[in-house]
Amino acid sequence: MPRQLAQLGQTGLNSLGKLGRSLLVLIAITGGVPALLFRPKLIIRQLYIVGVLSVVIITVSGIFVGMVLGLQGFYVLSQFGAAESLGMMVAASLVRELGPVVTALLFAGRAGSALTAEIGLMRATEQFAGLEMMAVDPVRRVLSSRFVAGLMSMPILAAIFSAVGVLGGYLVGVALLGVDDGAFWSQMQAGIDLQRDLVNGLIKSLVFGFVCTWIALFEGHDAIPTSEGVSRATTRTVVHSALAVLGLDFVLTALMFRN
Amino acid sequence: MGKQRILELAVGLFMALGLGAMFFLAMQVSNLGTMLTGESYLITANFQNVGSLKVRASVKLAGVRIGQVEAIKLDQTSFEAIVSMRISKNYAKIPDDTSASILTAGLLGEQYISLEPGGSDNYLQNDGAIMHTQSALILEQLIGQFLFNKAGEANVSQPTDPANKQ
């Protein structure tokens, strides 16, 4: 019995220690951000890796999610004779929830895991130690630019996802199932509010970008510098990011759409 | 150098794509395109009951959207709802004896304010008030009244209250 208790205590202490280390890493990362303003090339390179290379998967997923929403929404709404509201249903679910959340999940799988693996391998091959030998702070030099790039990419990717998804819903609803073109757009415009829906969706995607990039960078930095440790850290990045995004989404939704 | 150039080009394209998507969402998907642009003025109206009227609901005249509901408050002395409406300056010549009623779009749709223009030569000014108003129809009250009248008709010995007759 005392052994189990000790184990429980150890687990608790380990998680607390991890939380503390992740906060320290975050503070170190944000400390390196101002210096980046004078070296935008570092950010551009990371924007390419984190953002541009994710565009294809985001676009393709967005189109299909929008098409599925159009199809399913049409079946349900036509039962109530409200198929004209399809545009509003597709746009509202995309802009408020699916856009930020699915983008964040894909982002964690596509870019977050890559970040963790890259940084974990840099540590495994002792490149961080090499940077330190040259009196370069590896956290600031390597992590900060990736953090800023992740934070910038997420809202852009989420916006692309939502826009493409609306077009996908339009394709299925109007071109395929024969919903009225004008009603599709006018119901959408009547139902989607700029402040309540678009701005809140943007805030959500910013929060998710912050959390996903933070988790990815920290797991890479905290990984045991062996091939096994890096592979475990990569898995943890995806799992923890997904859990954090889904949990935070509920909290943010509850805060934003109270009325 | 060429590689860096391609990199910058790709990132530029990415950001332009993102801004384009945001612009599309703002203009085509949200209500920004239909929102009031330019100058506007406020008018108020007191209602006995606003039903489920919400802030930002449409204000229509002859079915044309001319403004939106800015705020709904409760007058603590008369216990009436004070609805302030923001009307576009394009529609500045609304007679001051106009009446306002709260209607429902469709059977279960959103509620909106409909203005019926009067014949006065004076126009509503900024912070002007509409005197004649008609409250929202509350479906439950309507049904209750209907059932009450029906019961009254069925029971011949008990004369119906003329006040309840519609």
Characterization of the model:
The complex is a heterodimer of chains A (259) and B (166). Chain A has 259 residues and is mostly helical. Chain A is built from 9 helices and no strands. Chain A has helices spanning 2-36, 40-50, 55-79, 86-124, 127-133, 138-176, 181-191, 194-222, 227-256. In chain A, helix 1 packs across helix 6 (138-176), helix 4 packs antiparallel against helix 9 and helix 6 packs across helix 8 (194-222). By secondary structure, chain B is of the alpha/beta class. Chain B has a domain at 38-140. Chain B contains 2 helices and 8 strands. Chain B has helices at residues 2-29, 139-154, and strands spanning 40-47, 58-61, 64-74, 81-88, 99-104, 111-116, 128-130, 132-134. Chain B has an 8-stranded mixed beta sheet with strand order 7-1-4-3-2-6-5-8, with no helix packed on it. In chain B, strand 2 and strand 3 form a beta hairpin. Chain B is elongated, with a radius of gyration of 25 Å. The termini of chain B are far apart. Classes of the chains: A mainly alpha (259), B alpha/beta (166). The interface between A and B is medium-sized, with 29 and 26 residues.
Oligomer: heterodimer
Helix content of chain B: 25-40%
Gyration radius of chain A, to the nearest Å? 21 Å
Low-confidence region ranges of chain A: none
